[in-house]
Amino acid sequence: MIARIHGTIVASTADSVIVDTHGIGYEIHLPRTLLASHEVNDVVTFYTSFIVREDSHTLYGFASLEQRSLFGQLIGVTGIGPKVALSLLSSLSDNDLRVAVANGDVTRLSKVPGIGKKTAERLILEMKGKLDLRGIAATPASARDSDVIDILQGLGYSAAEANAAVSSIAADASEALDDRIRLALRYFGGV
Predict the structure, then answer these.
(1) pLDDT by residue (tens digit) across 46-67?
(2) What is the C-alpha to C-alpha distance for residues 32 and 95, in angstroms, rounded to an integer?
(3) CATH level 3 topology of 143-187
(4) Cα separation of 60 and 83, whole Å?
(5) Does residue 186 register a pLDDT over 90?
(6) What pLDDT does 101 receive?
(7) Domain ranges within the chain, ordered by starting residue
């Protein structure tokens, strides 16, 4: 198993990078948020999961051992393969994914590309008792904040950026949706 790769990014595609390690280039598929944070010529270290299928041998890379472990748990769910697991990790932060599973939030999970209602329900059922819930937000985002996050993602912000913006809203701020959107956009320097 290839568990970790350290090297220099020499090329990038829409969903992967090629990392040169001592003259050998490894193609590594990454979550979109991680992919967006690196450029060609960056020196990187990725924790990897090597998936062998009948027709392919594919490396998936992650920023931390915890995220790699979460990926492993996701692909253990019936009906979720590596591409769908990567889509989940691209669309939701690790924390948001854990909160959505812990709260049984089928709606939030089914908004992820490749996840329908039945798959979301199966994911919740199979993972609810297996996830490490230490370190996640003590109180889940309100439905209103979930709407703000969805709107920000619709505007092109990543899940991590949208969550950071919502987290920046003061606890005593207005509960009106339009006010919360405006406050979240201020995080990015708009409105």
Answers:
(1) 999 999 999 999 999 999 999 9
(2) 16
(3) Helicase, Ruva Protein; domain 3 (1.10.8)
(4) 9
(5) no
(6) 87
(7) 4-62, 65-127, 143-187
